[in-house]
Amino acid sequence: xxxxxxxVQQLTPFGAALAGALGGCFSTAVVxxxxxxxxxxxxxxxxSKGKGKDLSMTSVLLRVYKQEGIAGLYRGFGATxxxxxxxxxxxxxxxxxxxxxxxxxxxxKLPPGSKxxxxxxxxxxxxxALAGALxxxxxxxxxVIATRQQVGRPEGSKxxxxxxxxxxxxxxxxxxxxxEEGVTGLxxxxxxxxxxxxxxxxxxxxxxxxxxxxxLAKGNTSTKLGPWLTFxxxxxxxxxxxxxxxxxxxxxxxxxxxxxxxxxxxxxxxKPPPAHKYHHKNGKHVGALDILAxxxxxxxxxxxxxxxxxxxTKAVLSQAxxxxxxxxxxxxxxxIMIFAARISSRRTI
Length: 349
Description:
Subcellular location: Mitochondrion membrane
Distance between the termini: 36 Å
Mean pLDDT: 80
Number of strands: 0
Structural class: mainly alpha
Order of helices and strands: HHHHHHHHHHHHHH
Membrane topology: Multi-pass membrane protein
Solcar repeats: 11-101, 119-213, 225-332
Protein name: Peroxisomal adenine nucleotide transporter 1
InterPro entries: MCP, MCP_dom_sf, MCP_transmembrane, Mito/Peroxisomal_Carrier
């Protein structure tokens, strides 16, 4: 056991980030159709009477399959994989860097030979939030593009542009966002995104805390858990984080979706803004608090949790897969780094 855990402990922040990114892509790819379904459920507003279509995950998956085929279940797959890799890489990199720096600082203040106690839950949350905020700032443009690809175009937009050639490629969607929202449109949802940095902070903070308690109760000197125990702890941690932050998760998706400006225009009895032209000459893009207030007015408190079942199902499965596979991907990341170092050393000879 010590022989297996030693290489993983030697991972640099770069290696930990690579392992986290690879694991994140793997877990997201496995459950990707569920990701498309939950995004569409979150982005679909109810009508003025608070009523809407059947929004269960199964019905949405079947509807997408009937209308768009298998391709519809994998809309935006490339952008989502890029977003997942960049977000997970950035998060694990900053988290490993910040956490290791913080631990070194604490260790330097201890008497020689003293053992550092486990970090407090508050410390884990703060470190995770800081890492998440840094990751969000650098990666959210890809998230905006991926969300628009997954959700597709509003019904009215499809009819209006039936005679026009629609470009839903990664660069096509990026150009459309810049035309309609300006360059800052690529950072739509950054404010709720920064608030949502508490989500992975709660997840990883709770996971590390429960993990340390379980290992302490077992009296085991190892730092590893079995795969099934890891699955359960990861699922519980992610569920807790999702319940706490869900209203802002839903609001962020609606801000980033194409339908946000159309809904805002209808709310104020105005004409829907034209495609490929700037939308905010006389105002600004709707914000998270505006969306939450509108949903509360139409649907009440339960409207804030529309699609939470789909979010938890997808998030728990994805996060549990990530936790279960993370240590294996750490070994692979270490192997990749050793292989790259050997190639680099041969070139310098």
